[in-house]
Amino acid sequence: MGPREYKLIFAGSMGAGKTTAIGAISEIPPVLTDVHNTDRGTHAKATTTAALDYGEVTLPGGDKLRLYGTPGQLRFDFMWQILAEGALGVVLLVDNSRPDPVDDLRSYLRAFRQTVAGSRAVIGIGRTESHPLPALEAYHAVADECGVTVPILSVDVRRRDDVLLLLNVLFMQIEAFESDLVEGVRA
Amino acid sequence: MTSMVFEGHAVREQVCLASITALVEEHGDVAGALVSTVDGFPVAAHLRQPEAAPRLAAMTSSLVALAEAISREAHAGECRDLVIDGGTGRVLLMDVPQAGGKLLLTVLCAPTATLGQVLWAAQHCRRDISARLEATA
After folding, report:
1. What ipTM was assigned to the predicted interfaces of this complex?
2. Residues in A touching B63 (Cβ below 8 Å)
3. Which pLDDT score is estimated for A165?
4. By CB distance 3.0 to 4.6 Å, which of B15, B27, B108, B130 could disulfide with B32?
5. pLDDT digit string (tens) for A86-127?
6. Helix (H) or strand (E) holding B130
7. Which of 65-84 (A) contact B at CB < 8 A?
């Protein structure tokens, strides 16, 4: 069997670090659709993703990861559906400095429920060093409430190793999902 | 037909609304028009279904940003206009240069519209908005 290609998506609120995470690990210059952010009340950053980010990573065995970042704001939810089509897994990023980050996670778990189903997801909580609360337990409670069992890690997506850790964990989730499928077929 | 302006810079919104209202009323083939920010917020709308404005604004932002990415990838220079050729109508998307950061113009065209005619009218509207905003700056 030749090298496989996997489509993965990065989702989460505006400013959670989706563009940064893809930029930290992509081996090609990422495709960006950054535009001027006119909504400084919601987030102070100068630019925001309007359509998608795109990056690529080749794994040691030759398999390729195609990484798609989504725009964070709810008004771009039509892009979420387009980008989630055919995705094998999702990295959900949460910004712990936001007013209600636990509710952010609840919203994105619901929005990406089809990909999250089967636990093909990993959750990365950012800015926990400056904003230690809410604690990870609060996020686990929300995941339970949404009926999903997925790993939740504290990460700094500016660090390449942290993003690679997220992807490694996501792959373990995906492999577990696929082996469950195979066993289901055999049974 | 309903005209709407959205919260923000009142002068900018009135200027945009006047220009797009003229575009729609003077050209029978133009079914509606919208001005929005580059990050997808409506500024002024003259549409049959005004409730569509926020969603159209966000979609325009995504499509123009993507078209710009493709232009960069293809070394095609700056992307100015985007034409969506539908089975029962056309949609024109274009940028509106202005000093304080550009705006975006979305023009909905009737199925009977001649592309050259509506493109010319929309480009005139774009220049009109830029000139009026410059005059009020």
Report:
1. 0.89
2. 51
3. 95
4. B108
5. 999 999 999 999 999 999 999 999 999 998 987 899 999 999
6. helix B115-136
7. 71, 73, 75-76, 78-79
- The torsion of the CA quartet B3, B7, B12, B14, rounded to 10 degrees, works out to 30
Residue written as token pair 């712990």: A96
Q: What does DSSP assign to residue A14?
A: T
Structure tokens at B10: 């009142």
Q: Taking a C-beta distance cutoff of 8 angstroms, is the pair A47, A37 a contact? A: yes
Chain A residue nearest residue B37, CA to CA: A38
Tokens of A133: 């609360």
Place of tokens 């274009």: B94
B51 touching A (Cβ < 8 Å): no
Whole-number Å distance between alpha carbons of A39 and A43: 7
Contacts of B54 in chain A (CB under 8 A): 75
Residue ranges and CATH numbers for the domains of chain A are 5-186 (3.40.50.300)
- What domains are defined for chain B? 2-136 (3.30.450.30)
Q: Give the tens place of pLDDT for each residue, B24-52.
A: 999 999 999 999 999 999 999 999 999 99
Q: Residue B66: in which H helix or E strand, if any?
A: helix B53-73
Q: Which two tokens stand for residue A152?
A: 């939740």
